[in-house]
Amino acid sequence: MIDEAYARFQAVTEGENAQYIPALAAADPEAFGIAIVTVDGDVYGKGDTKQSFAIMSAAKPFTLALLLQQRGAGTVLEKIGVEPTGLPFNSLEGADRSSPRPLNPMVNAGAITAVSLLQVEREEQRWPLILDYYSRFAGEPLDLMEDVYRSVSGSNYRNRALVNLLESGGWLEAEPRATLDVYNKQSCVAVTARQLAAMGATLANGGVNPLSGQRVLAADLVDEVLSVMMLSGFYDESGRWAYTTGLPAKSGVGGGVVAVVPGRM
User: What confidence category does residue 89 fall into, taking pLDDT thresholds of 50, 70 and 90?
Assistant: First the structure.
């Protein structure tokens, strides 16, 4: 299956790197790899499956998982929402909560709010908490892509507007600049296709990492993550994705896509 998909899509050259983040604009557009990790711990891959790239928005389901693990499904419904917006990922409209507009943890406004809602005793614990949780999903230590983080931090004018709108509306539970900094860092975690596949396989396996055997997310919270991925993982193209593939998935402008076949891979 991987050989067939690789042969079919290797020659695709349409589209371009994200241009609004200089480090991503400079990334190798020819890199291409496909990886599968099954719930039995089998690993398959072809192409550039060991080349690191920035996880970007493919991180959002895993921060949602951490928030669900800490504070439960009710907090997500009350403080963020789970409705598809039908809007681009960085829409400013989603941050205006004074009117009844939908929001969810996959768009930037909802994802920034999710970071602020994580429970820590001290603000400096928020980033290590997220990085450690992502590493448990991957089954091995992950790290920050420092060059991409610096690039994102210097060019994220729209997210600065979002965090200010959220703060003015009283939706954040942490200091806005510190929240945005952690959000930037979570977007710049380095992953390979194999590591991202392991993270997806942990969701497919009911919250247990099939490589490490460690439970990362309570089994009764996995469906909440997968449902939001299905409805909103591709933003304003989520309906088309669901119609053509039928799989919960999340994209990221770093080039990664993680899809989950529940109970399988």
Answer: confident
Q: Which amino acid would we find at residue 146?
A: E
- Label residue 95 by pLDDT band (50, 70, 90): low
pLDDT tens by residue, 204-229: 999 999 999 999 999 999 999 999 99
The pLDDT of residue 166: 92
CB 142 within 8 A of CB 191: yes
Q: Assess whether 6 carries a catalytic annotation.
A: no
Q: Is 235 a catalytic residue?
A: yes
Residue type, 59: A
The pLDDT tens digits of the residues spanning 128-146 come to 999 999 999 999 999 999 9
User: Has 155 been annotated as catalytic?
Assistant: no
Distance separating alpha carbons of residues 27 and 255, to the nearest angstrom: 10
Q: What is the pLDDT of residue 86?
A: 75
In the DSSP assignment, the letter for residue 50 is: T
Contact, 127 vs 2, CB < 8 A? Answer: no
Helices in 118-256 by DSSP H: which ranges? 126-138, 146-155, 157-168, 176-187, 193-204, 222-232, 238-245
CB 96 within 8 A of CB 169: yes
- Of the residues 60, 79, 185, 250, only one is catalytic, namely 60
Which residue among 133, 134, 149, 183 is the active-site one?
183
Distance, CA of 113 to CA of 173 (rounded, Å): 8
Which DSSP category does 35 fall into? E
- Paired tokens of 92: 């400013």
Whether 238 is catalytic: no
Among 76, 163, 235, 238, the active-site one is: 235
The CA distance from 224 to 229, in Å, is 9
> Is 216 assigned a catalytic role?
no
